[in-house]
Amino acid sequence: MRTKIVQRIAGRTNEEMVRECEKLLRVVRAERTIEKRKYKTIAGVKHAYIEKTKERMFKPDPAVEERLERSIEHYKNMNLIQLRPYQEDIVRRGVEKLYAHGFVYLSMEVRTGKTLTSLSMLDRMDGVENVLFVTKKKAISSITEDMNKLCPSYTLFTINYESIHKIPDIKWDAIVLDEAHSMGAFPKPSKRAKEVRDLLVKHDPLVILLSGTPTPESYSQMYHQVYGIKRNPFAEYKNFYRWCDDYVSVRQKKVNGMFINDYSHGTDRIMADMAQHMISYTQAEAGFETTIDEHTLTCPMKQSTKDMIKKLERDLVIEGKEEVILADTAVKLMSKIHQLCSGTIKFESGNSMVLDTSKAEYIKKRFDGKKIGIFYKFKEELNALKQVFGTGITTELDVFNNTGCSVIALQIVSGREGISLRKADALVYYNIDFSATSYWQSRDRMTTKDRQENHIYWVFSDGGIEWKIYEAVKKKKDYTLSHFKKDFNTKEI
Question: What is the three-class DSSP state of 49?
C-alpha cells in the first residue's frame, strides 16, 4: 500500500511544504551525544576516559520517516509544474472561497489553465483525499495528463457525464464539474443536471465548477448549474419557476401560432448574486496575443448533389427506389439542405448515406503533409472522411497527440469544449453548426499562451447554405429558421 504523504497545510505553496517536511524530518532524525565514563588499564595503571556516542533522540515508527521522505519528494516533484502568477493568485482566492462557501465557479477562458488551476486548488485543501472530475469523454486524456504532471496528494477519478452512474461507491471529498454550462438547460433541468444534483446532495462535497462561458445564451442558464450545491445563493428557491419570480423577466413568444412563456431573459441580479462565488479570467488578462488567421475556402460539389438540392427546394420531396428524402416542414428543409451541401443525407427511414465525398477529397489534397483537426457536423460526414483518409484519420486525442497520425476528426458540438488541439497546424471545418457558441468555442481549440497564430479554414460548398450560416454565427447570432426563410425565400410549408 502506498505511503500517504503529509497533508498540505492550508494555503502553503509546494516550496513551503518542502521546507516544513524537511524541518520535521530533521526533528525525527535529531541526535544527541551521550558521554560515558569508561576505564582502561595501561601498564597496570587504571585510566578513566570519556567515550562519546550518538543516538536518536526519538524513536518514531519507521513509517513516519518514510512518509516524510516521500512527502519531500512529492512536493519537489510538484514544482516541475510551475503555475503562472495569475494561476497562483486564482488558486489562493479559490481556496478562500472553498473554505468560506464550499464551492467556487472558475470562469476562465479557454487555454488559461482552468483544469490545472482547479486541481492545484484542491491540493491545498485540508482533508481532501478522493476527488471526482466530471468532464466530456474527449477531455479525459488531457485531464489525466495534467494530473500526472501535477502529482497531487489526493486520488483523482475522472469520468464523463454520461457515465456518472458508473462511479465507485465511495465518499467524494470534492467534485469538479467541467464545462458546467452544459447543465444549464431550462426551464426544466436536463438529465445531466439532475444526476449531478443527486450526486452533490448525497456527498455534500467541495465543488468547483469550470467553464469559459458560464451562461453562453442566457443568465437563466445559471440556476440548474448550481441548484444541487448546498450553499448556493439560490438555495431558498424550491424550483426554477419560483426562482424566476425574482430573477427572470418572463415574457411571451409566439411559436407555431401559440403563445408560450419565454424564460430566457434572466436579469443582471443573477450574476450579481453569483459574484462572491465566481473567479473570472480572460485570455487578454493572461497576456495571450494569438492572432486568428481565418479563411473560407470554396469546394465545388458534384452536379448531382446540386441538382438534388434544387429539386428538394422545389418539390420538398425526392423519392428513390428504396428511400425517400422528405422536407415537409421548413425545419426539415433547412436540415436536409445543410446535410446535402456537405455531401450526406439522412432519409425519412432514419438511414443515412454518403452521396458526395468532394469536400473530404478537397481537404485531403489541400492540407497534405499538415497535422490538422477537422470538425464535422453530421455523423455521416465522419464516414465520408474515413472513406477518403482511410487509416490516416483518428477520432482519439491520445492517438493524434502521441503518434504519427496527422488527422483527427471531431464532432463540432462535443469537440468544441474541454480539449486541446495545440499540436495541430490548422483547424479545418468540414461543415458549420447553427450555433454561435460552437463557432466561438471551437475556433479556440488550438490556442495556447505561446502560440502566435491560429490557422482556421472553413470549407464551404459553392453556393451552399454554409456561407449564410457563417455570416450569422460570426456576428454571435445563431442561425435560425427565420434566417433560413429570408435567405432562401422559402414559402410557408
Answer: strand
CATH 3.40.50.10810 segments of the chain: 82-286
CATH class, domain 82-286, is: alpha beta
**String of DSSP letters for 126-173:** TT--EEEEEE-GGGHHHHHHHHHHH--SSEEEEEEGGGGGGS-SS--S
Say whether pLDDT at 60 is over 50. yes
State the pLDDT at residue 339. Answer: 96
Indicate the DSSP class of residue 190.
Answer: P
pLDDT digits 0-9 by tens, 250-280? 999 877 778 899 999 999 999 999 999 999 9
Q: Where in the chain is the domain with CATH 3.40.50.300?
A: 292-488
What Cα–Cα distance (Å) separates residue 60 from each residue in 9, 66, 68, 244? 22, 11, 12, 61
Looking at the chain, how many residues does it have? 493
CB atoms within 10 A of CB 239: 12
CATH superfamily of 292-488: P-loop containing nucleotide triphosphate hydrolases (3.40.50.300)
- What is d(CA 306, CA 341) in angstroms, rounded to the nearest whole number? 8
Tell me the three state secondary structure of residue 492.
Answer: coil
Band of pLDDT at residue 2, cut at 50, 70 and 90:
very low
The pairing of beta strand 453-461 with beta strand 426-429: parallel
Burial class (CB in 10 A: 0-12, 13-18, 19+), 314: exposed
Rounded CA gap, 329 and 345, in Å? Answer: 16
The DSSP 8-state label assigned to residue 490 in this structure reads: P
Residue for grid cell 493572461: 286
